[in-house]
Specification:
The chain is an alpha+beta fold and 421 residues long. It contains nine helices and four strands; from the N terminus they run ββββααααααααα. It has a four-stranded antiparallel beta sheet. Helix 7 runs antiparallel to helix 9. It is elongated. Belongs to the sorting nexin family. This is Sorting nexin-4. One of its GO terms (cellular component) is phagophore assembly site.
Length: 421
């Protein structure tokens, strides 16, 4: 079967993980610099997004179900899609987008080929992960994003309606320095594995940055050697044609080496290292969901602690040991306040508070438990996608190295045969 260039959103094999309902293949390609319209003078980069799917809803305006749907989107469009998914699916791990301005692993301006090609590959990773997610892949906004020819109108219709949940943001800030009192062994193990994976990926990332730099240097050295051999060939021409011919043949092999290292380096820099960085960010996205799960549990634990304090205070008042301190009691006596009536009033208020807190605690418990179960499903899905991505990425890495050595072997076998003749 020929390679179409599409990244296929294949169903997950694990029975414990829900499968996407439809096949969804998305290809991001052809980054092009475009000038802004009359409302904005700034330029931007447009990406071609091609979609192939068996979902009939995608083909309402298409001639047949086999049509490839093509739209053009800019980075801000994908950022809007990301924010909508983040807002609509708080219990899902939303795949990360590349940084808006400059990647830490990219040199040069945002319109350079290096920048746009790497961002294109990173955007491909984002949409592939969304396509492989059983919930996100069925999102209505995703279909509009991939199909609509009037996306700008859709953007304007959302102006002012997409809001961040301020309550959750405030809670996250307030609980930033708090930890869960009773973290389950399952989540302790998940965090340990996640941290270890993140550290290992970061190490590999640094190693391949050095590999790319070394390959670039080798390519440049061979290119310089080729230039010197060409000069030698010109010196020999006319005086020793046979030697000139052999120098030319050898130089062709050197040129192939230079091009080979350059192409291999380009693949590593434009794709493999981008995959590593995107995986680091994906791990971080999973960590953010776990923090949100912890926040729900912290809310429950603090509410439980507050309820226990109220119950203890009521019990102490009933037994005669609670209430205000000695000086407060004396002041109330001088003021003519009936101590027994005041005590009963406090007990009644505490009983009302305890009743209210008990209901809130039950609700908080249900929310925390439900969020934990959804988080476990997302972690299982993350593990499936991460394993497949690593397998594909390492397989592609091996294929490119095999291709490099096969080409070099073929080139130098020809050089050797020519020199011996």
């Amino acid at each position: 079967m020929p390679d179409t260039g599409f990244s296929v959103g294949q169903p997950l094999e694990a029975e414990t993980v829900q499968k996407p309902q439809y096949k969804l293949e998305i290809l991001v390609s052809d980054p092009q610099k475009r000038s802004g319209d009359q409302t904005t003078a700034s330029s931007y980069v447009s990406y071609q997004i091609s979609t192939k799917t068996d979902n009939p809803a995608y083909h309402k305006n298409q001639k047949n179900d086999d049509d490839i749907i093509v739209v053009h989107r800019r980075y801000s469009d994908l950022l809007l899609l990301y924010n909508i998914l983040l807002n609509d699916h708080p219990t899902c791990i939303i795949p990360p987008l590349p940084d808006k301005k400059v990647f830490q692993y990219i040199a040069g301006d945002r319109f350079s080929q290096s920048f746009t090609q790497k961002r294109c590959h990173s955007l491909q990773n984002f949409l592939r992960r969304v396509a492989n997610h059983p919930v996100l892949s069925n999102s209505s906004v995703l279909m509009v994003f991939l199909v609509s020819n009037d996306w700008d109108a859709y953007r304007k219709s959302l102006s002012g309606h997409l809001q961040t949940n301020k309550e959750e943001v405030t809670d996250a800030f307030m609980n930033a320095f708090k930890t869960v009192h009773k973290q389950s062994d399952e989540f302790v193990e998940i965090k340990e594995k996640s941290d270890k994976l993140d550290q290992n990926v970061a190490k590999i990332d640094k190693i391949f940055h050095r590999v790319v730099k070394k390959n670039d240097n080798i390519s440049e050295d061979y290119a310089k050697l080729g230039t010197n051999l060409q000069d030698l060939q010109e010196l020999c021409s006319g005086e020793n044609e046979e030697l000139a011919k052999k120098v030319k043949t050898f130089n062709e092999g050197i040129t192939q080496l230079s091009y080979g290292f350059r192409d291999l380096s380009k693949y590593l820099a434009y794709e493999y290292i981008v995959d590593l960085k995107d995986l680091e960010h994906y791990i971080d996205s999973m960590g953010q969901l776990i923090k949100l799960k912890d926040q729900k549990q912290i809310d429950y634990e603090e509410l439980s602690e507050y309820l226990n304090k109220s119950i203890n205070e009521k019990n102490n008042l009933i037994s005669g040991y609670g209430g205000s301190n000695f000086f407060t009691n004396k002041l109330e006596e001088f003021a003519g306040i009936n101590q027994e009536a005041a005590r009963r009033e406090k007990i009644d208020k505490l009983e009302t508070k305890i009743s209210s807190l008990t209901g809130e605690l039950e609700s908080a418990k249900k929310i925390a438990d439900a969020f934990e179960q959804e988080t476990l499903k997302e972690v299982a899905l993350f593990e499936e996608l991460k394993t497949r991505e690593l397998k594909d990425s390492l397989g592609s890495l091996a294929d490119h190295h095999i291709e490099f050595y096969q080409k070099m072997l073929e080139a130098w076998v020809k050089v050797d045969e020519s020199l011996q003749n």
